Amino acid sequence: MLRKIIKAITPYGLIRLRQIIIQHYRNSETIEEMQVIIDAHSKQLEELKGLDYSRVERLEEGLDGIYLDSDISEYESCQNIEEAWFAINGRIDQGDECIKACCEWYPPYPYFISLQETAEETLKKFFDARKRTIAECMKASMLKRQGIESKRKITEGCAKCPFFTKAKWAERRTDLIKHVYLAVYPSPCQSKCVYCNVGEWMRGFNVAESKIYYEKVFEVISLAKEKNMIADDANWTVACGEITIHPLKERIYDFVRGQATKFYTNGFVYDEGVAENLRLNPRSDILLSLDSGTPETFAKMKGVDKFDVVLKNMDEYCENGARPGQVRYKYILMPGLNDNLSDYEGIVQTMKRHETNNIILTRDYRRDSTYEEKQAFIYAAKQLVRVLRSNDIDFHLVEIGITNKEFNEILDNAEGGEPC
Length: 420
Ligand SMILES: C[S@@+](CC[C@H](N)C(=O)[O-])C[C@H]1O[C@@H](n2cnc3c(N)ncnc32)[C@H](O)[C@@H]1O
Ligand code: SF4
Ligand code: SF4
Description:
- The protein has 420 residues and is an alpha/beta fold.
- Among the domains are: 2-69, no CATH class; 75-169, no CATH class.
- 46% of the residues lie in helices and 14% in strands.
- It contains 18 helices and 12 strands.
- The protein has a 10-stranded mixed β-sheet. The protein has a two-stranded antiparallel ribbon with strand order 1-5.
- α16 (341-353) links the parallel β10 and β11 (358-362).
- α8 crosses α11 (207-226).
- The longest helix has 27 residues, at 119-145.
- The protein is globular, with a radius of gyration of 25 Å.
- The structure holds S-adenosylmethionine (SAM) and iron/sulfur cluster (2 copies).
- S-adenosylmethionine (SAM) binds at residues 189, 195-196, 198, 239, 241-242, 264-266, 289, 330, 332, 362, 364-366.
């Protein structure tokens, strides 16, 4: 069959095209798959018989040329892939594949890339990997329409992720990076949160030793900026250990100057760099994992007694910000530690104090819950959600590793019912 397809093309003398097609579809699983793809692209092939080399070049560059011209605009993908999320998330000093499309927990992720010799190579690898990912998303959806289930090579993990949905992605796709996420390690932190392993990573953190790797990261971001690869209205996230005590924080603040930025901070220190960004960018905010509503529980969760200091620092950010609601909270719910009514009422009071009406509710994602642990989490979440609802506070349940049924159970049973 392969010979037949190739032969069918050669009479037109399109030797170059033939090579491209062979290369292009060599990853197809079966001859049937290949035939379906060739049929679907017969219109493009017809046009290419005119030996329009500019289009041939575009095919060669990647898969965009052929797919952008086709009618496949609706397919399964996600915002991170289509809007070119550029997440530097992980250790940069050990050759790790630290550049990713997201920080979700659905391995294998579509792509992860280590820092290359040069900034150009790193960016090229990133965009190439993204292009291949999009091509696979389109190909899989196209084959599905023909009743063929194709084996995913790049997006196998994505297919399990709740963010992977069918939509008219071709219309939303951007050529520019729309989100830069910086969770660069090694980075320092002075807290000892019970659920976090940043402390372990930081043993032996040496700024001088890490600086060469940071320079590599800074080069990549500078080049991407210089070459206008990052959208002007891109969102930035800064979550490098504890940014307010990071020895290279000024360099990071320079990158996010004038940009909508989310700062993950423990709030132990009030930082003028963060404050300035909030003041100048109404879209910027702080996301603080308070995980408690009382000083006692805060100390248990964070390993340090700083509840009042943190709340005062948040008062100051609020006073100097661009709008109410720029300080936002998270609650990592850990049954046995922070699942009691006084903490639930305390977090509600704190949110009212800082005029913020939306909280992220999540769990310790390091824990592989047993059945009992999961049930304890669900029970605690129902109670917390009930308290939030009775105070008209909005919430998002994220990364909680439970089924949709359990998720709905939390939402449904939290409606009214018994007081906790
Ligand atoms: C690693 S911290 C770094 C930024 C900053 N120090 C902070 O605490 O926000 C980034 C985020 O990861 C979250 N995090 C860390 N370990 C976690 C875990 N085991 N489960 C859930 N969230 C976790 C923290 O709550 C925080 O919101
Ligand atoms: S579908 Fe999920 S795992 Fe895949 S890139 Fe998007 S957010 Fe990440
Ligand atoms: S403050 Fe942030 S980085 Fe530090 S230990 Fe807590 S979660 Fe980890």
